[in-house]
Amino acid sequence: MASVGELPINAVIANKPKMLGRKAEGLDQKVSGPEQGFRSTLPQTLRPPAERQGLTHLGTCVERVKPVVLPPGDSESQGEPVGLRVRDRGGSEGHPVMGWTGVELPGDITPRESGQTSARSLVAREFGKATKEARQMAGESVRGGPRVGGFALSPGAVSHGADDWDQIDWHHARQAVRRLQARIVKATQEGRWGRVRALQHLLTHSFSGKAVAVRRVTENRGKRTPGVDGETWTTPARKARAVHELQQRGYRTHPLRRVYIAKRNTSKMRPLGIPVMKDRAMQALYLQALSPIAETTGDDRSYGFRPERSAADAIARCFILLARKGSPQWILEGDIVSCFDRISHAWLLAHVPMERSILHKWLKAGFMHQSVVYPTEAGTPQGGIASPVLANIALDGLQRALRERFPKLSSGSTLHRVNMVRYADDFIITGDSQEVLETEVRPLLERFLGERGLELSPEKTAITHIDTGFDFLGQTLRKYHGQLLTTPSKQRTHAFLREARAVIKGNKAVTAGSLVRQLNPMIRGWVMYHRHVVSSQTFAYVDHAIWKALWNWARRRHPRKSSKWVKAKYFPAHQGRQWVFTGQVTNARGDKHDLRIFFATSVRIRRHIAVRGSANPFDPQWAAYFKARHDRKRKDAYHDRQRHLSRVADGHTSTSLSMPTTDHGVAPSLTRAVAEA
């Protein structure tokens, strides 16, 4: 006697689904006999949908495809229909699987391909094809997902092997991640935190998310820097294997490798923690699910370590707040003592919207220094991919706290003109009087930071008048006779020149081409950072200082040669400009060509347009806005290039590298500093 539970089962015969069971005698045949008596004794939850509580309808859409599994029991012998069904290749088949239950599919619905229908049935699907449930969890069709070696991969929780790293369709992978991030943003805006957690789980378990995370940590500047295990992922095979190793179950962190770097303009050392490659990839993976929430809930006037935002946006916002005649005159310069090293772990675990077990492992990983492992009781290690985002989340909310205490007025300003601009742990707060900042704003700051285990630095936190000026993010903001000027900080300018001179003096024996190759990235990076402020005179001064150091370098190499000979060898004219330091370098093909020093004055000064405070790069509604910003940047770069070429063709390129002179509207203090230098 075969059990009733074995009546409808699926099998695969000649790559086609076949039914093994009693031969149906007609489409309208009903079950009778012992089976009917057994079914009448079943509870309501185990009966077929059409017989539950005497229902006569054919069942709901969900019930039509719901598998029905009956408990084991006795029934009549099934005879021998198997051979007949094999011989006629299914021609004798009557009802489909659901036919004997009284539930028939309508004629306008195409039956789905054979799949797993119960715990007892065989898995009837081709190898390498995702199940229906997997495609539903993926959130998109297989056709639109990432591809590896011609096989479509869904971005959801189910993924298949991808041994060929180089054949991954990165465009589809990034698009799959961006779609899930956009859904996280929408759920966050609606306050549906249960859906947010579900989408985060889907993204962190997806093949696309894991592949993009591995690519991020293996193609950045630190890709060849190992952790405590000494391992780096350099080969495509190792990267492909790493994608499948990013699993939450069984994941254990390694201690961070502790290194120290010198702080700017001080003898103190800054600690950095270097995670192992797997920990970096896990941080990059979970950061993909955390960043959309951080961008949606973050402060509008926060600009540090956030996508599509920069220090130039923070400086532009400061100019907007302080440039008008009726702008606030007092500024509180805030500095937090060891912000990254002192953030409370308890606060982070209670407020960061991500998988708590993973976050706990990151925070408690410890660090290794000189072969000794030390525990970490507070802070986020500087050097990890997720550390800046965690620090931003900890400091987000300061703007809301200030707005609650100093609300907006009908005139558009705020009470006592209190506003904030923050870049990571550096921030300024404006006010219309020194008393307001000292007696009301500062106590609020101390309470806010105290909840997070942080405190203000008594030495570096100061209240300054705008006429005196203050330094913020390497720029000096100061009003001269009511006009606000933003110039490169004298301290940062002299620090940059000291670094450039050290490179020149430390390479006395190298060729001129090698020296230019080392100097050009330094000069270009510093100039591009300061090109959005009043910096033309500072650029001229920097060009002159570097030229002087290079001239001394060349004269030292040839002490017995005349100045005319040295000038002809190292400082030929080029495109209308005299005294261009030039050297020869060899490219990868072995060809030699001239390489010239980069001039700071060759960069055009262009004002930066601050990003809108509520703009969210993960929200599709802001896609057109960010596209317009990118197009404008490309257009400006193109026009700058065309302007430079036209000036060269007309012979208008500046040939003077003399000391700058005073101009109308230029800060007298800057002119005095240049003259003294």
Provide a descriptive summary of the structure in words:
The protein is globular and about 75 Å long. The model is unreliable at 1-32, 55-66, 81-110, 113-143, 157-162 and 652-677 (pLDDT under 50). It has helices at 34-40, 61-64, 82-87, 132-138, 170-190, 193-204, 207-218, 236-245, 277-297, 311-322, 339-342, 345-351, 356-363, 387-395, 398-405, 434-450, 490-505, 512-530, 536-557, 563-570, 623-650, 668-676; strands spanning 9-13, 16-20, 147-148, 151-152, 256-262, 269-274, 330-335, 367-369, 372-374, 419-423, 426-431, 462-465, 470-472, 475-480, 483-488, 582-586, 592-596. With 677 residues, the protein is of the alpha+beta class. Helix 5 (170-190) packs antiparallel against helix 6 (193-204), helix 7 (207-218) crosses helix 8 (236-245) and helix 17 packs parallel to helix 19 (536-557). It is 39% helix and 12% strand. It contains 22 helices and 17 strands. A 4-stranded mixed beta sheet has the order 6-5-8-9, with no helix packed on it. The chain has a 4-stranded antiparallel beta sheet with strand order 10-11-7-12, with helices on both faces. A 3-stranded antiparallel beta sheet has the order 13-14-15. The chain starts with 8 loop residues before the first strand and ends with a helix.
